[in-house]
UniProtKB/TrEMBL annotation:
CDD domains xrefs: M48_yhfN_like
Sequence segments annotated as region (Disordered): 1-24
Domain of life: Bacteria
Name of the molecule in the record: YgjP-like metallopeptidase domain-containing protein
Species: Actinoallomurus bryophytorum
Residue ranges constituting the YgjP-like metallopeptidase domain according to the UniProt record: 38-158
Pfam families: YgjP-like
Length: 176
């Protein structure tokens, strides 16, 4: 699905072959060579906008993609013991990366995770899935979470992000 909203086309006599697109707030800026015909220009605009939309979709997976990923992680690392009722992005979590409600099986991930490496998002998903089995952060909880091979790496990544953003850490633990 191509991006919607205002599209600004910038033509350059110095640009010879490349056509690129990027976001600038609510508008999309398309940069292209000045010598293209109107038909070529429209073809290129359509192509780069579709490419931009695909790239953004990969970087910002939908709630449905998160849900499928959570089910896959449960199968791979938790022997399929849990199946969340829902998994979704939320914009109102600023001091934690994720949360879950074991009573109804819902998992929420902070929108601040969007754009972070997939292995970091996977760790947070697995962390929250594990809370559906073990509510606290005791030894049984960490034994399950540590089945994920990138746990320590992801925790270090999140600690670094939290430290640079000034987010609180609980007892030396990354906020999840």
């Amino acid at each position: 699905m191509p991006p919607t909203g205002e599209i600004e086309v910038r033509r350059s006599a110095r640009r010879r072959r490349t056509v690129t697109a990027r976001r600038d707030g609510d508008k999309t800026v398309v940069m292209m060579p000045a010598g293209l015909s109107a038909a070529e220009e429209q073809e290129w605009i359509t192509m780069v906008l579709e490419r931009l939309a695909r790239r953004e979709q990969r970087r910002h997976p939908s709630d449905a993609v998160l849900f499928d990923r959570a089910r896959e992680l449960s199968q791979r690392y938790l022997d399929g013991l849990v199946a969340p009722a829902s998994v979704r992005w939320v914009g109102n979590q600023h001091s934690r990366w994720g949360s879950c409600t074991p009573e109804d099986g819902t998992i929420r991930l902070s929108a601040q995770l969007r754009g972070m490496p997939a292995w970091v998002v996977d760790y947070v998903l697995l962390h929250e899935l594990t809370h559906l089995i073990e509510p606290g952060h005791g030894p049984a909880f960490w034994k399950l979470v540590n089945r994920y091979p990138k746990t320590e790496r992801a925790r270090g990544y999140l600690e670094g992000v939290a430290a640079t953003a000034g987010l609180p850490l609980e007892d030396g633990e990354p906020v999840t």
